[in-house]
Amino acid sequence: MSVARQTRLTLLALLTLIALIAASGAVLLLARPARVSITIKPPLPTATPLPTATFAPITVYVTGAVAEPEQLLQLPQGSRVSDAVEAAGGMLAGADETRVNLAAFARDGDQIHVPAIGAESAIGLPTPSGGGRVYVNTATQAELETLPNIGPATARRIIEYRELVSAFESLEDLDKVSGIGQATLAELKDLVAFD
Fold it and tell me: Is 109 exposed, middle or buried (0-12, 13-18, 19+ CB in 10 A)?
């Protein structure tokens, strides 16, 4: 085989290879996938609960068969009668524990009397200053349900409102709760307190 013929064959093979590469490139360009567009969707904002009101301490007056009677005590909001008795030094040995509801919530202005065993007492059990009113900002669901026109669903809405929005400051604030209207507010007027 002559050199000229070998050069032509080499040149032909080279041209064929270039044509194959070009054809492959064209096929790749035509067959490439469509552009992918990425859309970032941020998550929906999460509701952040508003800060709740910080309640002032309550003041109670403890009398009777306790170690340190007849004194005014300041206790944190939500304290129970047992906390007040403990703050007054605890019950004396002669105290009649059965006549004191230690599990009851202490309210601002309460007088908590611990009678002695066998003693007749005109004071009796702790006397709330509100005359048996329901304290809307600290009442349990069961306590709220004792009010007229307040059923389980409305009581839950009252608790959710005071925990997520704010404490109630007046009777008019209760109107912001779904299910409580002017007629109910008129009935609640003398039955609720907001301390």
Answer: middle
